[in-house]
Structures are given as C-alpha cells and as structure tokens.
Amino acid sequence: MNRQVLIKAENLTFKYGTEPPVLRNISLEIARGECVAVIGQNGAGKTTLAKHFNGMLKPVSGKVYVGGRDTERLKVSVLARTVGYVFQNPDHQIFHDTVGKEVAFGLKNFDLPGKVIEERVTAALETVGLTAHHATYPFNLSKGQRQRVALASVLAMQTEVIVLDEPTTGQDYRESMQIMNLVKKLNQNGHTVIFITHDMALVAEFAQRAIVLCNGEILADGGVRSIFSRPELLKETFLKPPQITALAQSLNRYAIPPDVLKVKEMYELLKARGEEIGCFS
Amino acid sequence: MAALVEYIHEDSPVHRLNALTKIFWALFTLGFGLLFNDYRYLLALLASVLLVAASARVLQSLLPVISGLTVFAMILFLIQALFYNQGQVLFYLIPGVDRVPVTVQGLLSGLAMAARMMTIILSFLVFLTATRTQDIVLTLVEKFKIPYDYAFMFLTALRFIPSFLNEVKMVSDAQQARGHSIGGINPFKKIKSYAPVTIPLVLLSINKAENIAMAMETRGYCGGNRTCLRDTRMGRTDYLLTAALILLLASSATARAAGYGVM
C-alpha cells in the first residue's frame, strides 16, 4: 500500500514566552492508518506536541503540515475537519443540556444536514455505550461517562485523524478496555489514531508505533516491539516496559525473546518451549 | 496575559521591603500624580516608577503590560489633543475652515494625562508583582484592621485571575477543536457564538469555588482569632523610607499650594 503522510513535523520547536523550549527539534511523520502512542514522563511535552497536530499551538520555529497544508495560517476550526482532538478534561467542552445535543455540536459546526447529524449522534453514542443517556443532562453523569461523551462528540465528526489525550484516565479497567477497543476499531476502519498515555500495557496492546518523548525531544520513535525491548532507553524518561515484557526480559536466559508484548504471546512461547524440552506430555 | 498581576519571586531590595512601605509608596505615587498636572513632573514620576520596577527586577516581566498601556496612553493623548482647544494654536486638523485646532497646551496636557495614567497603574502593578500576596493580606489584616475573611477573599480573587485566563484558553481550544469559530460580523451572532465558551467557564468556576471552600474547611479554616507565623514588623529601612515618602508628599502638597507644577 502506498504510504500517505498525513501529519508531518519538521524541526518543530515550541516554547512559552521566554522560557526554555518545551519541544526541541521534533521531526516526525505520521502516515494514514497508523496507530501511534505518544509516551514519556510528565512534562516531557506529550500534550504540547499533540496540540500542534490540530493547530491549537503553532511552532515557534519549524513547520507542521496536516494533510500537506502548513498549520501556521490555518484556524483550529478549519483543521478540526481533518483532526479530531479529545481533551483530558471533558468539562472544558460540555455546555449543552443533553448528551445528544452535546455530541451534535461539532456536526452542526460543519453545517451537516439534520438527518446525517441524527444518524451520526446515535452511532457515536452507541459506540461509547451511552445510548440510554441520549437525553440525560451531562452533569448528572459520572466523570468517566462525561469523558465518553467528549469522546463521542469527536467520534461523530468522523475525522481522518483522531488525537486522544489520555483517554483512559478516570475509567476503570473494563471501561478503559472498552475505550481502547473502540480506538482499535476506529483504526481498523481506516482512521489514523494518535493517543497519549501513561499506561504501557495499553501501548503494548493497542499501538503499532510509539514515540518516546523526553524533555521535549524525541528519545525514540519506532515499532512498539523494538522500543519495549530496550529497557535502558525507557529508563531515561522514567518509563518501564509492561510487566509481561519485563518478565520476558528476566527470562531471557531461558531463550525467551525480550520483546514479548502480550500475555497470550508469552503463554504460547512458554508452551512451545515446554514442549521442546519435554515438560508437557 | 496570565502573568499580569502575579507575584514574581526575586531577591531584590524592593522585595525585601515591608508590604506596608510599598503600599505607602504606591499611595504616594497616586497622591503625587494627582497633585500636579505639569507634564515634566509627571514624566519624572513615571521615570521614578520605572526605576523602582527595574531595581525590583520586574521591569522585564512588565514590558508587555507597559506596551499595552502605551496604546491607551496614546489614545488619551490624542483625545486630549483633539478636544482641548484653548491656548496657542499650532495647526488646524481641517485647515481650510480653521476647525479642530490643535494647541500646544492641548498636546502638553495630553502628555501629562497619559503619563499620569501610566504612572498610577504601573506603581500598583510594581507593588503587586514585588510583594507576596500573603504579605499584602497580612498587612491589610494586621495594620489596616480589615477582617480576615475579606482580606482572604481579595487574595483568592487575585489568585483566581491567572487560572481563569488559563481556563478560557483551554475551553476555547476545546470548542474550536470541534469546529466552533468565534466571530462573524453580525454582533448578535457574535454574542451567541460566545456561549460555548462562557457556559463551561461559568460551570467550571462555580465548581472550583465549591471545591476551594471544601478544601479550606477540611484544612480547618474558620473565623475567630488568628495568629501569624510570618513577621509583619517593619525594619529601619522601612521606617526611614516611609518617613521620607510622607515628608516628600507633604512638601509637594505645599509646593502645589504655592503654585508649582500646575499648568
């Protein structure tokens, strides 16, 4: 398949006022259909980087292109048609008196016909599991549910790229898995997904590529498997590989490869190894 | 914008002064600025305020404010120049029919007004940026006998401004990311287009106020007698400076009464 670059940053540097730069010399390309995790310790610049992808922040020097267009002179509300952005705090956006209206807001801004809006709202609420709350007052929902309202409001816009800033904070395990499975499904349907997270297990499970940020610079950028097999690199930005990968790494001398990402994978490996040395009969 | 009235931590001679002395200084500037209307006096006063700002090492951070104030000062100057029509005429804005005269006195009084406005605002900004807010509140309570609850309200309100501005940015970003754009030429539409930003802001602020109140109560905030950990006593420099400022203000009042510094 032809690799089509959707987001491209060239020597992107960003700083607030006269303070030292938050991002330094970031160059990267994100192609259509990728599922990318942005990881790094607090204050590494993850959110700042993500906010450049829909033009909320403009680089102090360097360039950012979205779909081939320089973001410098484009309004956020225009870029919103290409890049959807789900914020950490849903309360920064919710202002309607029903969940349904809240989800429809973005679509109304795009001047879509009423019928299409209705369909998309219903579909988006169904995907986040809030169909029953179509007419509920958003502030009667729990914070986790409100977060899913915010997610639905971006999903409904059906943008090519979706950026999620810590989509699973405030969700319990089951809810996080629901959200991430949804993200996975979006990705399979052809959306390009970029998500920020602190949960390495989610990265291992759902992302194909990880961008590791450390003090405003890209420490590593590559396949999740190859990044997690280098624990010394992760240590630099105070990250740890997921537990199953750490286990695999400590079992290295029993011929277990250091880049195991999933429990199931580990199980298969151990089983094969067991059969090899005649443990299972 | 967010850093406008925030305390800037520095170890400067101005920072080391007692809050009360700095209040006196700001009041002195206010008094002096209102006493005279000679542009030379007011420009000298403006220079002195800038000097204090520089020695407090807050001049750099106040630069954006100063440039903003300059715009207002220019407007003031222009208005004064256009509408003050007594005195020696320099030229007419509409030359043929000799209408809208611009006079020397008009220009000078415009200059004086602009300088006065900048001086008074800047002196309070320097005071606010060079004094810990806690010290201001403590001084208000200890020296001016203002009830603690009111002083605390003042402190919280000040603290609210930067975080509020921050939230304005977050909310408008969030709405723009959903394709919302503020603006248009139609004023009614424009007002309506602010709703998606103002509603979350109001809700967030109410929520925050409630949270602050609860957090304060859980940490034992209540009325009644309070004792202070920090010392609000004045040092020798403070007494000397205050005395000097009072003396200076008294003598300038006398000078003003004798007719100096008036145009």
Could you explain the architecture of this structure?
The complex is a heterodimer of chains A (281) and B (263). Chain A is of the alpha/beta class and 281 residues long. Helices cover 37% and strands 21% of the residues of chain A. Chain A folds into two domains: 5-239, P-loop containing nucleotide triphosphate hydrolases (Rossmann fold, 3-Layer(aba) Sandwich), CATH 3.40.50.300; 242-281, no CATH class. Chain A has eleven helices and ten strands. A six-stranded mixed beta sheet of chain A has the order 6-7-8-3-9-10. A four-stranded antiparallel beta sheet of chain A has the order 2-1-4-5, with no helix packed on it. In chain A, helix 3 (99-109) packs across helix 4 (114-127), helix 3 (99-109) packs parallel to helix 5 and helix 4 crosses helix 5 (143-155). The mean pLDDT of chain A is 89. Chain B has 263 residues and is mostly helical. Chain B has two domains: 1-143 and 232-263, no CATH class; 147-231, no CATH class. At the A-B interface, strand 6 and helix 3 of A face helix 7 and helix 9 of B.
